[in-house]
Design brief:
InterPro entries: Endo/exonu/phosph_ase_sf, Endo/exonuclease/phosphatase
Shape: globular
CATH architecture of the largest domain: 4-Layer Sandwich
Distance between the termini: 60 Å
Number of domains: 2
Number of strands: 11
Radius of gyration: 21 Å
Structural class: alpha+beta
CATH superfamily of the largest domain: Endonuclease/exonuclease/phosphatase
Keywords: Endonuclease, Exonuclease, Hydrolase, Membrane, Nuclease, Transmembrane, Transmembrane helix
Mean pLDDT: 94
CATH class of the largest domain: Alpha Beta
Protein name: Endonuclease/exonuclease/phosphatase (EEP) superfamily protein YafD
GO molecular function: endonuclease activity; exonuclease activity
Oligomer: single chain
Order of helices and strands: HHHHEHEHHEEEEEHEHEEEHH
Organism: Blastomonas natatoria
């Protein structure tokens, strides 16, 4: 019986690792981008059981394969551990140019509104992005919403509604449908207390799941990357990307947009699934252009959703950041081709599904 368990665990770890190497939009392939930590744990368990249970060349082969799985998966997540060098420096340069931001996928079916209200009251962020909000959530959060002078909402019953709030001065903001008519995003030009302008992007594309491949998700992420590349302002991007930080798409997003990731060198900051602490992965993101420094970033407690909230304080300090931060990794020809193809294929998928929005990101 133990032999069967060892082979089953080893097969799962090896198959998941091999499938994650395949460039594809298919949900049953792209889903293996997510559980890299879980696959390491499965491979370690298979390894621990194989040594006393198996023998001879079978044991040698299985141990070698599991070590390769652990090595490859460890290589992919290594940047998101404290062992790696950080990309974004911690520094408070000018408090008037610092911004506190909060992003949370509330889980539409979660009706314990008060815990979310209490959390927002406690954190008191300058910017709030809430995802999966329907009319029930919008009504329940009215006391919170009314406290923010700038507010935009797209309540939807399809798990993709959003609420965007800020107390900071807003030059322009827009809820837009980048690819299809069912998945909104938010773009805004905001100023700090000292008058420094920046662009804010809030995203919540669809995840890979049965019946939902990743063309449209990848296209939304690529459009947001291109938008950051074209603007002269600092850019802050947040949201539930339904993609992990180490995926090919997220890495393309970073390079094309010139983003830095404050999690690099600090930890996974894993947010989903909220009820499985050892098996979570980082679905909820904060990316920033190299004009920002980091004050703090936290994954907050579970308040009834399947995601955990993310809160961060960052400062716009271009001159200091240029010295303190790493340079963003430059995109190559493959990244640019990937961006163009992702946008093209996402728009094509939306047309084929009859959900094409004809939308685009606002002008930078």
């Amino acid at each position: 019986m133990l032999r069967i368990l060892v082979f089953a665990l080893a097969a799962l770890a090896a198959t998941g690792t091999l499938l994650s190497l395949i460039p594809s939009y298919r949900w049953y392939i792209r889903m293996w981008d997510f559980p890299r930590v879980g696959l390491i744990l499965i491979a370690l368990l298979a390894l621990a059981l194989a040594i006393p249970v198996l023998s001879g060349w079978v044991r040698t082969l299985l141990v070698a394969v599991m070590l390769m799985v652990i090595g490859w998966q460890g290589f992919r997540i290594y940047p998101y551990t404290p062992l790696a060098k950080t990309e974004v420096a911690k520094a408070v340069i000018n408090k008037e140019n610092c911004i506190s931001a909060f992003s949370f996928n509330v889980l539409q079916t979660n009706r314990d509104y008060q815990r979310t209200i209490d959390l927002i009251d406690r954190e008191d962020p300058d910017i709030v992005l809430l995802l999966e909000t329907d009319e029930g959530w919008e009504a329940a959060l009215k006391p919170v919403i009314d406290r923010y002078p700038h507010r935009q909402s797209a309540p939807l019953p399809n798990l993709y509604g959003l609420i965007f709030l800020t107390r900071l001065p807003v030059e322009d903001s827009e809820i837009t449908w980048l690819i299809d008519t069912e998945t909104p995003s938010v773009f805004a030009t905001i100023s700090t207390g000292a008058g420094a302008k920046f662009r804010y992007i809030g995203l919540h594309p669809r995840p890979p799941q049965p019946g939902e491949n990743t063309e449209k998700r990848d296209a939304e992420i690529a459009i947001a990357a291109r938008h950051a590349k074209l603007t002269d302002l600092p850019v802050l991007a947040m949201g539930d990307f339904n993609d992990v930080a180490w995926s090919r798409t997220s890495q393309m997003f970073k390079r094309i947009g010139g983003y830095l990731d404050p999690r690099v060198g600090r930890g996974l900051y894993a947010t989903f699934p909220a009820n499985l602490p050892g098996l979570r992965w980082p679905l909820d993101h904060l990316f920033m252009s190299p004009d920002f420094t980091l004050v703090k970033m936290s994954v907050l407690e579970n308040v009834g959703s399947d995601h955990l909230p993310v809160a961060a304080t960052v400062c716009i300090a271009p001159r200091a950041a240029k010295i303190l931060n790493d340079e963003p990794e430059a995109p190559d020809a493959a990244d640019r081709k990937d961006m163009v193809m992702s946008i093209r294929d996402g728009k094509k998928a939306a047309v084929e599904e009859g959900t094409a929005s004809g939308g685009k990101a606002p002008q930078p």
